[in-house]
Structures are given as C-alpha cells and as structure tokens.
C-alpha cells in the first residue's frame, strides 16, 4: 500500500508549518522523515494519519483519496510518542485493544483475537509477558508492546513517530534493527519520524530530509552523503568542514589555495570537504589548502580520526586517515591538507 501526499500546505495561525510538501512512499518500503526539531515531521505524519488536516493538498493511500477521511477510516497503524500503553491493562489486553473496539460486524471472534495477539507477542518475542502490566516491563519491552498494539489491526501502512525516542542508545540500536526485520516480514509500508540521523541512515530504504517545513532532499543514505543537493543536507548528514571562498575567472580561491570551477561569474562560493576527503602530507610539498596541527588522535577500528587545528583561522577540522598509508601520527605534529574532493554551493 503506497502513500502519496500532494502539495500539502499547513499553517498554525500565521506560522507556515508545511510548505508545498509532495512525497511518494512506495509499497513495502521503509522511509524516514529526518530533520531538526520543529521542521514539521510530526505534523506531516499526523496529516497522513488523519489526526490533523492540511489547509490544502491531498493525501492518497493506496490510490484512494483519503484527504477528508477520519483516522479510523484510513486503516493505518500508528505509534506516536504520546500514545503510551494503558497502565491498567495487561500486555495481552493492550495488544488486543484495537481489535476489541472494532464494530461488532467486523470484530474477530474471541478465539481469533487470542490467536492474533499471541502471534504478535511471539513476533515481539514477549509471549511470556502476556499477563504482565506495563510498569513491570523495561522501556524497550514497552516500546515493543506498543508496536505490537499498532500492528494488531493488520495495517498495511505503519506510521511511527520517534518510536524509540526515550530509550538508551544500545536498546535503540537493537530495536531499530528488529523493527526493520518486522517491517520486511510483514511486508508493510512504513513511514518513521526521527531526528536521529544514524537511526534513519541505518534502517531506511529512503530518507526525506526536511527543514523549515520543506523537503530538502529525498534519497538513500549514500545519495544524501555523497550527492547532497543543498548546503543544509551537506551539513546535516555526516560531518563536514565548510570553507567560504571566492570564484574569480573560473578559479575557486581559499587563501592561496586554488581549485578550477566551472562557474564564470565572480561570486562567493562555499566549499565542503568530508573528513575522509583529505590528502594528508607531513611535508609542505606545495599546493596545500590548510596548514594544521594535530590536537587529538582517536583510533576508530582500522582508521585514525584526527582533530586538527587550522593554524591560520582558529577552526578545528576532523580528518580520517588510514594508518597503513600515512604511518604514525603524534599530538602537536604539523600537517598539510589537500582536498581530494570538494562539494561546492554558491553562497
Ligand atoms: N497544534 C499546533 N499549534 C501551533 N503550532 C504547532 C502545532 N503543532 C505544531 N506546531 C508548530 O509547528 C512546527 C512543526 O512542529 P512538528 O511537531 O511537526 O515538528 P517536528 O519536526 O516533529 O519537531 P520535533 O522533532 O521537535 O518533534 C513547530 O514549530 C511547532 O511549534
């Protein structure tokens, strides 16, 4: 079941929360909405769920226009931060809830409900806790029960708002991989809101980067990192160093460093360099862009991460090098950096 939103506009009073949002989520894919706090992720998810209505634009689920349909008529599962478990109900009853409140005509029998709830508890690996109450569960277990509850009505679309928001890093990591497996096992279409880029990059097929109520870019993790379309995406996804230079006669100049660029007008142009995109020289063989001093050395598996201080402008940069090629590094050592690649945007 696919999700299409077309030209969604949303105001809260004078505040323009969503600006001409169009988005397609293909059947069976897992897509994340990623962006800084307040950029409109939750509002968009609520509009797709039918918990909020757009001022204009269209929501189409599986080819059907549901723009004016209420939440209960959209046949979707959702799990929002604010939808905590019912404290006075057992795990079993929490998961069964969505089924027991269905109109009689379409409500499964008691036996069928029992079967479905137990299947879901097995799926979330908690069948032994069916009789437990929410306060007897860990945070991660509670989140899994909340997910099982949202899956009980067999939705073909699952909307998740920061599903693992309040959990510690290790549990989050386990749960998100587990969520990815469940998503594929049940063949549902999932849209997930997160402000955690590692989470988005790790589990999503596609990521929608939002900023100030707009979509900046939609792509997979590699596209967003290697071919960002805007300065915002470049800075938001992964680490990057930023340099404002001047283009004159087709040459980008930053200090004495020169780099040919196919821009003809004379203008200010920002260049971005990722930590692994530097060539590092220990001697000054000319042509370097930065002269730096090593301030911190951190071994990350087979790679070395250097935090270096630019000796001209007092800015720190991150540089990732491989120890095999570059040999030994010591604190305070001087290095000369030449970019292997620069991503340019006009200022
Ligand atoms: N009911 C409302 N009334 C007024 N303003 C609202 C309402 N709901 C959201 N907003 C505003 O709209 C903007 C977008 O909010 P939204 O919750 O969609 O952001 P978000 O990207 O999900 O942020 P976060 O990551 O912090 O949850 C925010 O500036 C918020 O203050």
From TrEMBL:
Q: Which SUPFAM superfamilies match?
A: MOP-like (SSF50331), P-loop containing nucleoside triphosphate hydrolases (SSF52540)
What protein is this chain from? Answer: Sulfate ABC transporter ATP-binding protein
What sequence ranges are listed for the domain ABC transporter? 3-237
Q: Which NCBIfam families match?
A: 3a0106s01 (TIGR00968)
What organism, scientifically named, is this protein from? Pelistega indica
Indicate yes or no for the key word Cell inner membrane: no
The GO terms describing molecular function are: ABC-type sulfate transporter activity; ATP binding; ATP hydrolysis activity
GO biological process per UniProt: quaternary ammonium group transport
Q: Determine if Hydrolase is one of this entry's keywords.
A: no
Against InterPro entries, the record matches this protein to: AAA+_ATPase, ABC_SmlMolc_Importer, ABC_transporter-like_ATP-bd, ABC_transporter-like_CS, Mo/tungstate-bd_C_term_dom, P-loop_NTPase, Sulph_transpt1
Cellular component terms per the entry's GO annotation: ATP-binding cassette (ABC) transporter complex
Give the record's keywords alphabetically: ATP-binding, Cell membrane, Membrane, Nucleotide-binding, Sulfate transport, Translocase, Transport
